[in-house]
Amino acid sequence: MMQVKRQQGRERRPLDRRKETGRIGEEIARRFLENKGWHILDTNWASRLGELDIIAQCEAGLVIVEVRTTRGSRFGYGFQSVGMQKQQQVRKLALQYVQSRRLFHLPLRLDVISVLLSSEDTPIRVDHIEGAF
């Protein structure tokens, strides 16, 4: 039987399947961008407004990448799930990141990478939508 540790009066559960799927997708996306010659500046950068998945620099400038990972296309591909509210949140976070790092001189672009995983957690498809929003 698996033991569950208690932390500050709450049970700490093992990483759930959804978070694990996201972690795997972000790692695949990071490697995908590095293979394109991009320099990864930050991953999972967080502020009180939320979190940016990947911040990278390429020839075009500074790129904020929202990563969406799915384990099947029955309900659509990951990039289709980036709604208006998420887009607004990413825009605000991107500006906050630029201000915190004083990167005003770099052009800014917001991309989406959609990762479709097999049941064995291997990538079936990786779509990179540049300038997605």
From TrEMBL:
InterPro entries: Restrct_endonuc-II-like, tRNA_endonuc-like_dom_sf, UPF0102_YraN-like
CDD domains named among the record's database cross-references: PoNe_Nuclease
An MF annotation (GO) of this entry: nucleic acid binding
Pfam families tied to this protein: UPF0102
Region called Disordered, residue ranges: 1-20
Domain of life: Bacteria
Residue spans of biased composition, Basic and acidic residues class: 8-20
SUPFAM superfamilies: Restriction endonuclease-like
PANTHER family: UPF0102 PROTEIN YRAN
Entry similarity comment: Belongs to the UPF0102 family.
NCBIfam families xrefs: PRK12497.3-3 (NF009154)
Protein name listed in UniProt: UPF0102 protein GCM10011571_17680
Lineage of the species this protein comes from: Bacteria, Bacillati, Bacillota, Bacilli, Bacillales
